[in-house]
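Progress note, sequence design subtask.
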């Protein structure tokens, strides 16, 4: 059995962060703060008429204040308003703020990042305004010791299961792929060609992210046959776009995979994706 390497760990942490919503994301960020600032970090939760005083957690000694917000899929204007309101509210309610750090499980759109850099940072020059998106969070967490990572993210950092052959099937339509997406609780890091251009990489990343997004909401739409058909049609369009660019998707599921660490991990079904190049000039088989 081989241990999870650093790169795989970072990607695994990133995938787990993507799944967190609302208070679950805030709780995770509290655990991160406790590991990064032992003996200083204090979690904060809303209570009473003043709420959380625009402060999700802070370090009284280091004077670092945190705002944790799961922004995945949120409108740009709402994200900008949230960041601006939390920063201004924190500065109004608290003294001597040295660092204000916005934590999100997304990569902020360029318009939001530009708003922070061009408007908020010049407006509050005495404060270091930072944004830790999902890539930065995954990097910072994966740098820590494995036992710390387990405490923060509760992700499967135990040894990988022993080698087992899993047969992958060519997925040509959304109807083919849907059972894998709707029947899984997570996914393993996907395989892809190593010689991708930037354009091809963006296409593959977008496709895989779409598959994961559909997997996340599959339980919410399974009750509606029309919603499932809409989802399958959308997935078919993605697969067709991949095929037009010379790629094919193969997929399967793996049962009884450890979803959490510890001596008694939670087991569940995970999806496996592999994207390969195909010869566009070769005849396709049915």
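Output:
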């Amino acid at each position: 059995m081989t241990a999870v390497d650093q790169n795989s760990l970072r990607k695994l942490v990133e995938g787990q962060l993507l799944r967190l919503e609302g208070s679950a994301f805030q709780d995770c960020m509290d655990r991160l703060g406790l590991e990064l600032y032992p003996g200083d970090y204090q979690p904060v939760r809303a209570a009473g008429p003043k709420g959380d005083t625009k402060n999700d957690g802070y370090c009284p000694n280091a004077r670092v204040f945190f705002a944790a917000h799961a922004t995945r899929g949120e409108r740009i204007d709402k994200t900008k308003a949230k960041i601006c309101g939390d920063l201004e509210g924190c500065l109004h309610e608290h003294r001597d703020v040295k660092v204000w750090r916005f934590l999100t499980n997304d990569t902020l759109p360029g318009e939001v990042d530009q708003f922070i850099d061009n408007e908020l940072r010049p407006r509050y020059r005495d404060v270091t305004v930072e944004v830790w998106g999902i890539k930065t969070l995954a990097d910072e967490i994966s740098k820590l010791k494995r036992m710390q990572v387990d405490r923060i993210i509760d992700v499967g950092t135990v040894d990988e299961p022993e080698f087992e052959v899993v047969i992958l099937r060519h997925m040509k339509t959304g109807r083919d792929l849907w059972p894998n997406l709707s029947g899984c609780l997570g996914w393993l890091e996907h395989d892809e060609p190593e010689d991708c251009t930037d354009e091809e990489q963006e296409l593959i990343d977008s496709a895989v992210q779409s598959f994961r997004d559909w997997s996340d909401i599959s339980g919410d739409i399974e009750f509606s046959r029309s919603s499932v058909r809409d989802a399958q049609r959308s997935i078919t369009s993605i697969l067709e776009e991949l095929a037009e660019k010379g790629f094919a998707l193969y997929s399967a599921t793996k049962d009884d995979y450890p979803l959490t660490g510890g001596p008694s991990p939670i087991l569940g079904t995970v999806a496996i994706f592999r994207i390969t190049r195909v010869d566009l000039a070769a005849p396709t088989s049915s």
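Confidence is low (pLDDT under 50) at residues 47-52, 156-163. Work on this subtask will continue into the next period as scheduled.
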